[in-house]
Write a structure and sequence with these properties.
Number of strands: 13
Distance between the termini: 28 Å
Number of helices: 10
Strand order of the largest sheet: 5-4-1-8-9-10-11-12-13
Radius of gyration: 18 Å
Structural class: alpha/beta
Strand content: 15-25%
Order of helices and strands: EEEHEHEEEHEHEHEHHEEEHHH
Shape: globular
C-alpha cells in the first residue's frame, strides 16, 4: 500500500446547532454547542487514519489549549506527527460552524497557525515528504505554499490530489501540478466562471480544468455521488442514500476515501465509489472527525448497499 501525506490546515471546530440559520442582523437561540477537532487538512488525515492508511500530516498548531487537544486527537487516530509543529505566539486555527436541522452548514474560519505554513516549513519537512507517494492539499493554508509544495512534489514524480476548498479563484500554475481535483458545484463555478445548471455545464467546466492542465476532474455532487471528467471520458458514479445529520466533513471524507483506495491500487472508478461510501457514512453523525468511519464500517456499508 502506498504512503500518503496530507499538507494542510488544523482547526478546532466550534459547532452550534440551530433550527435554521439567522438572517443578517438577527439573533436566534441555538440548540447545542460542542468543540471538535477539524480543519480540512486534519479532517482528511484523521479520515485516512481511521481507514488504516499510513498517513503523515504536515501542518501547524498554536501554543494553546486547542493545540494541545488536537495533538492528542491526532495521536489517537494513528497520524504520523513528525511534520506537525506547535507555533509559539500564535493561536490555533478555529472554525465557527452553524449546522441547521437539515444537516446543512455555514462556516467561518480564522486561520491562526495555519497561516504560518510557509515555504520554509515545506523545505524543513521535505525529507519526510519525499518518502511519501500520494499527497492531499486543500486551500486553508497560504496559496503560495500550496503551489510551492506542489511544484516540488511534481518534479519528484508524486501523485497530487487537490480539494479546491474553500472556494476561490486559483492561479493557472496550480492546475499544471494536479493529478486529481475534487470540486463540488460551488467550487467548480468559482474556479471556472461557468454557471452550472445541468450536466452539460458540468462537463464544460470539467473540460475547462482539463485544458488548464489538470489530469482528472472528480466533481463531487453530494447525494448524487460524483462525476469523473477527463479529456476522453464523462462518467457518473452514483452516490449512496443515507439520512444526513451533519454534512460538515463529507467532502474531506470523500477525498480521504479516494486517496486510500488509490493507495491500495484500485482503479479510478472503484476509488470514487469507495470515496462516495466514506463521504456518505460521515454525514450520519455529528461532528467532523468523530463521524468518520473505519475500513470495516465502509466495507460493511458497501456490502449492504450491494444486496
Amino acid at each position: 500500500m502506498k504512503k500518503i501525506c496530507v499538507v494542510g490546515s488544523l482547526n478546532m471546530d466550534l459547532v452550534v446547532t440551530v433550527d435554521r440559520f439567522p438572517q443578517p442582523g438577527e439573533t436566534i437561540t441555538g440548540r447545542e454547542f460542542a468543540t471538535y477537532p477539524g480543519g480540512k487538512g486534519g479532517n482528511q488525515a484523521v479520515a485516512l487514519g481511521r481507514l488504516g492508511a499510513d498517513v503523515l500530516m504536515i501542518g501547524k498548531l498554536g501554543n494553546d489549549l486547542f493545540g494541545e487537544q488536537y495533538l492528542v486527537n491526532l495521536k489517537e487516530n494513528s497520524i504520523v506527527l513528525d511534520g506537525v509543529k506547535v507555533e509559539e505566539g500564535v493561536s490555533s486555527g478555529i472554525a465557527v460552524i452553524e449546522v441547521d436541522s437539515t444537516g446543512e452548514n455555514h462556516i467561518v474560519i480564522v486561520p491562526g497557525a495555519n497561516g504560518k505554513v510557509d515555504r520554509a516549513f515545506i523545505e524543513g519537512n521535505w525529507p519526510l515528504m519525499e518518502q511519501r507517494d500520494i499527497f492531499l492539499f486543500q486551500l486553508e493554508i497560504p496559496i503560495d505554499t500550496v503551489l510551492y509544495a506542489m511544484e516540488k512534489l511534481k518534479k519528484a514524480g508524486k501523485t497530487i490530489i487537490l480539494d479546491p476548498a474553500p472556494a476561490r479563484i486559483l492561479p493557472d500554475e496550480i492546475f499544471l501540478n494536479v493529478d486529481y481535483i475534487t470540486p463540488n458545484e460551488t467550487e467548480m463555478e468559482t474556479l471556472t466562471g461557468i454557471r452550472i445548471k445541468d450536466v452539460d455545464d458540468l462537463k464544460e467546466a470539467g473540460h475547462w480544468l482539463i485544458k488548464k492542465g489538470v489530469k482528472n476532474v472528480i466533481a463531487k455532487a453530494g447525494k448524487k455521488g460524483a462525476y469523473l471528467i477527463t479529456s476522453d471520458d464523462f462518467v457518473h458514479v452514483p452516490g449512496f442514500s443515507v439520512k444526513a445529520v451533519d454534512t460538515t466533513a463529507a467532502g474531506d471524507s470523500f477525498n480521504a476515501g479516494f486517496a486510500f483506495a488509490l493507495a491500495q491500487g484500485k482503479e479510478i472508478i472503484e476509488s470514487i465509489r469507495f470515496a462516495n461510501a466514506v463521504g456518505a457514512i460521515s454525514t450520519t453523525a455529528k461532528g467532523a472527525q468523530s463521524a468518520m468511519p473505519s475500513l470495516k464500517q465502509v466495507e460493511a456499508f458497501i456490502g449492504q448497499q450491494m444486496r
